[in-house]
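Lab notebook, bench 4. The sequencing result for the construct came back, and we need a structural model before the next group meeting so we can plan mutations. Quick request posted to the team channel:

Model the 3D structure of this chain.
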Amino acid sequence: MEKIRALIVDDEALARKRLRQFLAEVPDVEVVGECEDGRRAVSLIRSAAPDLLFLDVQMPLLDGFGVIREVGAGSVPAVVFVTAFDQFALRAFEAHALDYLLKPFGRERFMQAVVRARRQIGDANVRARLDALVGGLSERPRHAARLAVKARGRTVILSTDEIDWVGAADNYLELHAGSASYVVRETLGQLQSKLDPRKFVRIHRSTLVNVERIKELHPMFAGDQVVVLHDGTKLQVSRTNRQRLSALLDEL
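Done. Here's the predicted structure in token form:
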């Protein structure tokens, strides 16, 4: 039996590793490539001609929907979206009968997605559903301009442009905005899905930074780096996130 050719597109190294591990357990699927950004994904879809695409929605520079628009829904293979998106988007995926994996996902949910993806392969209606999905979500602003955060018994409306950086601990986040900080109960992935990927980039598995607040970038031992913000705050950049940060700074 001919194997299904799969392509992995996700800007998180851990997510790509998890997908590879789970796909290794599926005997009729062969991974023909992987990449961490949308622009490279467009090139690989055209050159590798995969049957199945595991596509991250939230990526800097060119997101998952941008990949579909650039390649064209008629040329995109069967898709399983990999996302930390909000409930509005998840309902949209379901309404158009397109499958998704909500981060963090486990083996059982992954295997369900593979079963459903097999039904998509060769289905001409998938292309029409992709067009409708991308068009519908494009009509809605996907990046939050403001956040409602609780502070000392009151609710503060915080402009996302005010956020300097975000630190994560378990299911809590600390949002740093000038001299103020706010604690919210949310994961970093959930917050990142709401923010503009052209402004906010993950530089560490527990740190998100507003690139407009970066003043300097310093090399460190073993390939790590440190960013220095305009207020003097120093934040470590992990090796796995260095390329993502560099690409975004190049765009600026």
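The mean pLDDT is 83.
Will bring this to the meeting.
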